Fold this sequence. Notes:
Layout (H helix, E strand, L loop, with lengths): L1 H9 L6 H4 L17 H8 L15 H19 L3 H23 L2 H18 L8 H12 L10 H26 L3
Helix pairs in contact: 1-5, 5-6, 7-8
Amino acid sequence: MKKRLVEFLKNPFRKTKTQKNETPTLDGYHTSIDTLPLQSWIDCHDGDLTKTRMDTKRGDQKKDEIAWEQIQDTYLKLYGMSKVLEKIYKAMRQLAILELEYVITEDRMKLTLAEMEEQKIKSLLTNKGQGISIQQSLVYLSQWMNQWITTRGITTREYFDLLEEMEKFNKQTTPQKNRRRNGK
């Protein structure tokens, strides 16, 4: 495991064995954000990749990881890698390096720095680094849509599409609100 992690950190963009070889059949898995419920997206980001399964009792860890990679790929194809996502990946890389350095040197300072990096990642993961959680943003989306939206009742793609549309709407209406406040 450590060897694979070190190899990845040296060259994160090289093809992995699962990418080189034929991908196993992922029947019974979500492989796209089009079908993945938002709650499963949240759970996967919290480390529970079994939520990529449609039936949580059937599947294995290797297929969970492959399905999660495919889900991430569909997200990146649709929305691209945002600056926040780049920051998250850099912070994750730094966290892994600090953890490896701690294992090698047993220097407690490395562990403290790793914990700080972990907190940085958690804060960046909350709704594009804007300081609110997905659940909080769902409250705003629900108000905007004038109907209640839950993490189990919406797919990941629908959530990000709605969020994008609400941001566009807010950008369009904000200049008008400012003109009214300024008396113009």
